[in-house]
Write a structure and sequence with these properties.
Structural class: alpha/beta
Helix content: 10-25%
CATH class: Alpha Beta
Oligomer: single chain
Number of domains: 1
CATH architecture: 3-Layer(aba) Sandwich
Distance between the termini: 68 Å
Number of helices: 7
Number of strands: 15
Order of helices and strands: HEEEHEEHEHEEEHEEEHEHEE
């Protein structure tokens, strides 16, 4: 008879051991302050993500061992804090955050913005904080020119009619405002990959790398944003903050009105 001692060890002790094993001085999580020598594995393991060299997806070392923040979540937070300085006078900023990430939204929610609106489709199986409203990116229930900042981080790849979603985001963005519009993007595909004959979750995992994705964006993503009316800037800040463990190849796509 085999004896598995691991199942008798409390989870709190297992967690303490894991944190101790990975403590170090190379990285620091900007959310929880945990100092580590590496990050935990995160992402999906599908061949298409490797074949298309999809940035912002696939298996990678990008999760904080202590708070579980992802590399793409830390990227947006770093840009907001260090490049836009939004925490200096937050009361002047009205912000919309769609499909909000847990760690990032908690920080933003308590930061004293003029308004901080979180919206997502509240589907079964997804647990959201109580401050998240049921909201569809195709029909945002706010007037034109409502928000100074919009965060739309890895959402548009889920939306069949992404052009209309982009136009809706542009509609509620103020003139002079900025929208952070992140998506997983293929490094080696010039054109966005779509196939409307792919409809089942199983087929989508094979074709797009996740059961609820409807495309893999190519290098024409900026053109798609521009066609919706955005003035687009594409930047990379990862090398400026090496200790945060950001995804080195993930650019930030900024849409302005």
């Amino acid at each position: 008879m085999s004896f598995n001692i691991k199942k008798y060890i409390p989870n709190s002790i297992k967690r303490s051991v894991i944190l101790a094993m990975h403590r170090g001085s190379r990285y620091i999580c900007p959310f929880c302050g945990f100092r580590s020598k590496d990050f935990a594995l995160t992402g999906k393991d599908y061949p298409v993500l490797v074949e298309k060299q999809v940035i912002g997806a696939g298996i990678r070392r990008g999760a904080c061992y202590q708070c579980d923040s992802s590399d793409r979540e830390r990227l947006v937070y770093t840009y907001l804090k260090h490049k836009l300085n939004i925490f200096e006078k937050p009361e002047r900023i009205n912000m919309l955050h769609l499909a909000p990430e847990l760690r990032l939204s908690k920080v933003l929610f308590r930061s004293g913005f003029g308004s901080y609106i979180c919206g997502d489709l509240l589907l079964d199986g997804y647990i959201r904080p109580e401050y998240v409203q049921n909201m569809n990116v195709m029909d945002i229930p706010y007037p034109d020119n409502s928000f100074d900042r919009i965060i739309c981080n890895h959402l548009l790849e889920h939306v069949p009619n992404d052009l209309d979603a982009m136009k809706e985001l542009l509609r509620v963005l103020k003139v002079g405002g900025e929208a952070i519009l992140q998506v997983p993007i293929s490094k080696n595909s010039e054109k966005t990959i779509e196939d409307w004959s792919v409809t089942t979750p199983e087929e989508r995992e094979i074709a797009f790398g996740q059961f609820d994705h409807v495309r893999i964006y190519g290098q024409d993503y900026t053109d798609r944003l521009s066609s919706a009316g955005f003035k687009v800037e594409r930047i990379n800040i990862s090398q400026d903050y090496p200790s945060y463990g950001l995804a080195g190849e993930e650019d930030i796509f900024i849409g302005r009105k």
